[in-house]
Write a structure and sequence with these properties.
The chain is α/β, with parallel strands linked by helices. The chain has 5 helices and 9 strands, in the order E-E-E-H-H-E-H-E-H-E-E-E-E-H.
Length: 148
């Protein structure tokens, strides 16, 4: 399965964030940046989430809500978010059923049981832009912001 391309459809989702709160795509106004990362507590994923946190207001100014996602359970996400200083960014647990949203977006790596590293900009579930990254590749936040 390949990453969803422009025009592809992302299903509505409701997932728990790092605080255990349910976040639903239908409740988010405007565009959403889905920033998939393989696993919490890893160096590139930490940098990726901090990039979103540090540029959070820039995303909002462009009408985009950035969200981090991985297959980790939300209690682990809570500890990780606190340990890396996230205060604005929601990081969602695509945990049960494991990787269902990542799979729907074409970024789930079944043999490893994790999502790939990818970014999808969506509006009303429709993909406006997407890019897949290598496992060890840190997404360029400036490149992503330029797509907004």
């Amino acid at each position: 399965m390949a990453i969803l391309q422009k025009g592809g459809q992302v299903p509505e989702f409701t997932l728990r964030d790092q605080h255990g709160e349910k976040i639903s795509s239908k409740d988010i106004k405007g565009k959403i940046l889905l920033s998939f990362h393989p696993l919490a507590f890893t160096s590139v994923c930490t940098d990726q989430m901090r990039d979103l946190e540090n540029n959070y207001d820039r995303f909002l100014e462009k009408g985009v809500t950035p969200i981090g996602l991985s297959v980790d359970p939300y209690p682990a996400k809570g500890v990780w978010a606190q340990s890396i200083g996230l205060s604005k960014l929601s990081i969602l647990a695509d945990f049960h059923p494991k990787g269902a949203l990542a799979e729907a977006c074409g970024v789930y790596i079944d043999k490893a049981g994790i999502s790939g590293r990818a970014a999808l900009l969506i509006e009303d579930g429709k993909v406006l832009w997407s890019k897949e990254y290598g496992q060890g590749e840190r997404p360029d936040v400036e490149e992503i912001i330029a797509q907004l």
